Amino acid sequence: QCPMQEMKPQTNVLDLLPKLKSMALADRAVFEKGMKAFVSYVQAYAKHECNLIFRIKDLDFASLAKGFALLKMPKMPELRGKCFPDFTPVTVNTDSISFKDKNREKQRQKQLEQQR
């Protein structure tokens, strides 16, 4: 048994999402971590055994993406063919976001060069 208590909504909550978005725009590591966290959350939700409660079709992907401070929606099977009018991706080309860590950025540039 697990007793439940109703929680009251927090007041005077700071909106940290703009700060998180600016951090993601400034460092590819932050951008990628947000994307991975979102993908992991959605996949865990979809694979949960209790699909009567955790129904993937009822999940508000746009609000979830905003909560993870995503700059764009990731490409993943669970989102294929869906539209998200409540989510506005950034106009910046996310491929141009570099790592703050110079070694990781150097490695990324090398990989990009090999792909061309």
Could you walk me through the main structural features you see in this protein, from its secondary elements to its overall organization?
With 116 residues, the chain is an all-alpha fold. Helices cover 44% and strands 0% of the residues. The protein contains four helices and no strands. Helix 1 (17-26) packs across helix 2.
**N-C termini distance:** 57 Å
Count the DSSP helices.
4
Number of domains: 1
Reading the helices and strands in chain order gives: HHHH
Can you summarize the main beta sheet?
Answer: none
| Uncertain residue ranges | none
Short description:
Helices cover 44% and strands 0% of the residues.
List the helices and strands and how they pair.
Layout: H1 17-26, H2 28-47, H3 61-67, H4 102-115
Region (Disordered): 93-116
Organism: Thalassarche chlororhynchos
InterPro entries: SPB4-like_CTE
